[in-house]
Each structure stands twice: as C-alpha cells, then as structure tokens.
Specification:
With 104 residues, the protein is mainly α. The protein is flat.
Length: 104
Amino acid sequence: MKKFALTAFAAAAAMGLAACGSADDASEDATADNVEMPADQAMATADQPVPDPNASSDADEGASGVPQATASQAGEDAAAAAADAQDAAAAAAAASTPTENKTP
C-alpha cells in the first residue's frame, strides 16, 4: 500500500510541476516565412536535370528493376538447388533405413 501511495504522490507532484511551467517557447518566433525557403526561390538556382548516358533502358528489365536474364538465371539456379536438396534428402533417408538381414 505504501508503494501505491508513493507512486500516486509522485504522479501528482509531476502533474503539479508541469502545470506551473511557463509558455516561453523558442518556436514562437519561427514561422514558415522565415524558416522555409519558398519553392520558387529554391528551384530558381537548381540545375536542370539531364539524362544519364550510362543508364540502362527499362525495356530489358522486369517490374522489379532486375534484368530478365538475371531473374531467369536465378530461377533456374533455385530449381537446380531444390532438386539437389531433394536428391540429398532421399539419399540420406535411404542410408538411414535399416535393411533386413535374413539368415537362412
């Protein structure tokens, strides 16, 4: 019960101190006119965009931006890896299966 009373008193004291604070705020002097540069002024000094001669065209790329040949090769590699994993699992299962020794 003492912990509850102590916690309640601490909360009340914190609220009381917060309520007595002043409203002097540094952001009162800051307005959009003197903080942010208007877009027209910012764009007036910006360089015009130019096309990059080393950029590739979007025609040879898929929707994700990866060239189709690379994506196709990755798919084939994944299929081959899955087949190898299945073969290894089958070999491991065959090796761990006990064989019956029939003695006449």
